[in-house]
Structure formats: C-alpha cells, structure tokens
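Lecture notes, unit on protein representations.

Consider one protein chain, 139 amino acids long.
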Amino acid sequence: MTLVPGLAHALRSASGEFFEMGRYLIIGSLLAALMQTFISQESLKALASSPVNSVLVMAALAFVLSLCSTVDAFLALSFARAFTVGSILTFLTFGPMVDIKTTSMYLGMFRRRTVVYLVVLPLLISTLFGIWLNLNVRF
C-alpha cells in the first residue's frame, strides 16, 4: 500500500516542477519574441558583423537577461541566424554561470575582490573561447 502514496507524491512533485519551469519557458519565449519584434534585423546584423563584437554583445545579453539555462536556449535560437556560433556558445555558457542575480548574491556573501574574480574569470574564459572559435573554426 505504500506504492500509491509514493506515486501520488511523485506526481505532485513532478507537476510542481513542470509549472515552475513552464513559467520560465513562457517568459523566455516572450523575451525571444519581443527581441525579434522590436530589434530590427539591420541592427542585429550590425552588432553581429564582427567576430569579437558579436561575442561581447551576447555575453552582455547573457549577464543582463538573468534567465535560467533552459530559457537561454530559446533566446539563443532566436539569435542563431544573425550571430556567430562562437557568440551563441558564449551566451549559452556564460549566462548560466554569471548573471545579475548571482552577482548580487555574491556581493551579499563575499568581498568585492572575490566577486570580481567570480565574474571576470568566467567572462574572460567564455569570451576568449567564443572569439577563438569565431576566428579559427568555420561552420
């Protein structure tokens, strides 16, 4: 008889997780749609034209948007036609590591110097790899 309560608990937990993550998926889809609607393709192409510029822009977007890694995939997909592969990978790797939320939490727990290291090191690693990828690998 412990099987039925266990299954009921598992279904309650799964439905709670589904609705929790569904909220972020909807927000991410909304942001992707808004960016595609209100940012012109010409301005995106201007930002994405340089292998270095595109990586820096996507790293800044990843930091500012403060989304979860699941939603980042939706936004990256909306930028896939305009931006380079290296910049998309920078967005997908830097965003989950460092964003506004985690930086503010870090500032509440650590000294400023430690927070600078926690933000700058992932930024440098992901942007340098993205730039290297853009300059050396052709897709």
